[in-house]
Amino acid sequence: MTMIEDGMIAPLLLFLGDAPDIGWAKTASGLAQWRPEDCAGQYRLAGCQVDLGLPDMDFAAARAAGVRTLVIGIANDGGFIADSWVPHLIAALGAGLDIAAGLHERLADHTEIAAAASEAGRSLHDLRQPKRVFRPGTGKKRSGLRLLTVGTDCAVGKKYTALSLEREMRARGMAATFCPTGQTGIMITGRGIAIDSVVADFISGAAEWLSPPADRNHWHLIEGQGALLHPAYAGVTLGLVHGSQPDAMVICHEAGRTELQGYEGDFACPSLRAALDVHLAAARLTNPAVRGVGVSLNTSLLDEGAARDALKRAEDEMGLPACDPLRWGAGAIVDHLARTFPA
User: Fold this and answer.
1) Taking the model in full, what pTM does it have?
2) Which domain holds residue 12?
3) Are the C-beta atoms of residues 193 and 205 closer than 8 Å to each other?
4) In the predicted model, is pLDDT for residue 101 greater than 50?
5) Which long-range contacts (CB under 8 A, 24 or more apart) does 315-321 make?
């Protein structure tokens, strides 16, 4: 058994519901990618279009295999508990599983689920709720170095990029700490803040707390949220940008995506240059010396040749190193960081 966060115990069964694509199941896919040793199986409803390559298990089989926690691996628009999930979640509790979620709607606030958990003597883990009180940001410069991943849209790889940078930097003996700002990162690392659940006035202060003063050559690698050129989720991004006071930014994008996910027909994805420039302009309020240091492309929808061509085009457009951190690692960006911020 492995304790992950706030009593949440592995092995885990990942609930995929009826997710139409991997973007909706990003919490489950993040756990499967970064904590595979703790993921025993997946539970899918009829119509689910996502397969993480894990064994399909019902609740009895999962419990017999030693699973302790069912994790709701869905990140739907609005973060709510769908009615169609409720009978399955109640059945999981009856089978002896705890349930963990990072949704805006709390499991403990759902009358039927809370009653079923009480009757079964099982635990509900709501990981998106901040466990401390924050104050507004001060804007005061802190020691150490900070990198913030930002994006052209939501769900383009900001978390994976920061995690990949941490892995590459630590492999080189550099001091680096991944700072989770969303429910999936919290589940992966067992720490962090779901920044979009913090009162708006206090987001910058929460970001300051998340990346505190550090040694001169220590990097806090802060997971970005939302995007400044997004009609719905720009607000959380701005507070995170100001409170993080990044020295460096990496712009993230899914290769081939031309419209904002969920807003197709109304909003196009900005160019890499436009997206990075607007984030840099906002960041200069609290760190005038901020600079762009790289491009991270999710090329999972492209074959190898097309992916390498997309990276080359991004480098030519931006004059910065570009990588797909999951496909070929983040070494090019770390090389650039080491040259730009010498120890």
Assistant:
1) 0.91
2) 2-126
3) no
4) yes
5) 317/271, 317/272, 317/273, 318/251, 318/272, 318/273, 318/276, 318/292, 320/292, 320/293, 320/294, 320/295, 321/293, 321/294, 321/295
